[in-house]
């Protein structure tokens, strides 16, 4: 079976580098990500095929890095799908993690550009599960106390080869936030309790105090079609560059021109940022609803919320300098993510 063969190959691959696993994360929460699924890409031309479609450099996977964060863009340089790509030990085989609601659309997108390439594309949606284990013990508003400070690595210089294998469960560091979250792949029939036992999570909570969506919003990380509506966002606006998801040194790929031009001019005035409501909202908000400052001016767009924690595409300078922020009368504040790198001179010019 394809799934069993892929898992066996991943087992061999993870064992080959498991000695390098030195993760200092101590995650307390473990969640099955029902909103994420996997697509298998296999064939002698699979690497070159993906290289021309994604923002990151697929060659990182041949250099020992087990997974990469990357985007698929349209011809106008806007984000279609945010993904994590895993390398299988099986020759010329990759697993693409994507929003489950976008699985069919991504398959169509891949097949549209496949042409006569020797590539097989198949869904593993009903055969494998994606899990996240994540740390919640950090101060998102205090840079001095945050363990994220100084953890950013530019794309192309990643040294994260850390991963681990326990029977039929594969554990990877999340390539976007490797020190606070793990990605786990398993067969469909593996339960949460089995994974927790294999990970030796003695203090794993029966009821999580924070779910994965709230965890992401607390950090200002968008994921999937609910946060990143296909064809609307630009890569740098969703912090793809800050999360090791784009290479500015590889060859051409679909949507590259605008992304490269924006990077080299250094002008990124809007980015996804965490929002925190003063009180638990009593209303529901529309996607892209305006976030208003004390002058009644729109300084951002609402993307979603989980309780008091929310996500917004914000005008950085205006939002951070605002004395008051609200949406439909509900008061909130914006937080500059503690994991953002120090502003470059160009970024300071564009923000100030």
From TrEMBL:
It holds the Pfam family Beta-barrel_CAF17_C. It is found in: Mitochondrion. Residues 39-129 form the GCVT N-terminal domain. The keyword Transit peptide applies. Residues 269-341 form the CAF17 C-terminal domain. InterPro entries: CAF17_C (IPR057460), GCVT_N (IPR006222), TrmE/GcvT-like (IPR027266), YgfZ/GCV_T_CS (IPR017703), YgfZ/GcvT (IPR045179). It comes from the Eukaryota. GO terms for cellular component: mitochondrial matrix. Signal peptide: none annotated. GO terms for biological process: iron-sulfur cluster assembly. Keywords: Mitochondrion, Transit peptide. Its main location: mitochondrion. This is Uncharacterized protein. It comes from Bracon brevicornis.
């Amino acid at each position: 079976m394809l799934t069993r063969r892929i898992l066996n190959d991943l087992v061999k691959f993870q064992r080959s580098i498991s000695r390098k696993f030195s993760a200092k994360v101590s995650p307390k929460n473990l969640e099955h990500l029902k909103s994420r699924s996997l697509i298998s890409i296999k064939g002698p031309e699979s690497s070159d095929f993906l290289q021309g479609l994604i923002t990151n450099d697929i060659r990182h996977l041949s250099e020992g890095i087990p997974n990469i964060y990357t985007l698929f863009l349209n011809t106008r340089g806007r984000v279609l799908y945010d993904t994590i790509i895993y390398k299988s030990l099986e020759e010329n085989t990759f697993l693409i993690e994507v929003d489950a609601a976008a699985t069919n659309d991504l398959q169509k997108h891949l097949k549209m550009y496949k042409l006569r390439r020797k590539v097989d594309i198949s869904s593993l949606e009903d055969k494998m599960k994606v899990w996240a284990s994540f740390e919640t013990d950090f101060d998102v508003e205090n840079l001095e106390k945050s363990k994220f400070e100084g953890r950013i690595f530019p794309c192309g210089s990643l040294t994260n080869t850390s991963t681990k294998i326990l029977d039929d469960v594969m554990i990877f560091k999340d390539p976007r936030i490797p020190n606070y979250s793990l990605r786990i792949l398993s067969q469909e029939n593996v339960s949460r309790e089995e994974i927790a036992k294999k990970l030796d999570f003695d203090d794993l909570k029966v009821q999580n105090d924070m779910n994965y969506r709230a965890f992401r919003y607390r950090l200002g990380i968008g994921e999937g079609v609910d946060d990143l509506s296909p064809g609307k966002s630009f890569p740098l606006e969703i912090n793809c560059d800050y999360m090791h998801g784009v290479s500015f040194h590889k060859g051409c790929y679909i949507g590259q021109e605008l992304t490269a031009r924006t990077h080299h001019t250094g002008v990124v005035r809007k980015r996804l940022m965490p929002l925190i409501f003063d009180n638990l909202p009593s209303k529901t908000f529309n996607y892209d609803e305006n976030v208003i400052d004390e002058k009644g001016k729109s300084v951002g767009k609402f993307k979603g919320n989980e309780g008091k924690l929310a996500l917004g595409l914000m005008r950085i300078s205006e939002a951070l300098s605002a004395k008051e922020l609200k949406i439909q009368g509900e008061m909130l504040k914006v937080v500059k993510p503690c994991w953002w790198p120090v502003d470059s001179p160009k970024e300071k010019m564009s923000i100030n």
